[in-house]
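Tutorial, part two.
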Amino acid sequence: MKAPAFNSGSILTSLILLLLFCLQGCSSCPMEETNWNSQIGKCSFDDMVGDYGQPWRDQIQPDGSRIAVWPAVREQKWEWRAHTHHKELEIEPVHLDKPKVNYDAYYHLTFDSHGLLKRWEKHYSYP
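Running the prediction step on this input gives:
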């Protein structure tokens, strides 16, 4: 009795499809503004922590959703202070070696109760 032929083509195809599936599902969250809309429902809070470290601000809401803040430029080291503006808690970046830095961006990200990105907003510090 002859053994069935080994079909390396179908195994290779399966591996490629598995890799593509993983890359699509395991993609990193962007820091480029143009890519955020395509990440709604895909990018997770855990992905952001894995890529950019812990947020400077993280609030879990009563419905299980969370709001977190990351600076737009991750290489810069910031000291953050909270202040209220138009009845909304916002974060103002303050450079460690300067009294104040104006117009530096940060992202205000809202995640649903499953930890997936629901909404994003880009904010700037105030002069």
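The helical segments are 8-25, 45-52. In part three we will examine how such features are distributed along the chain.
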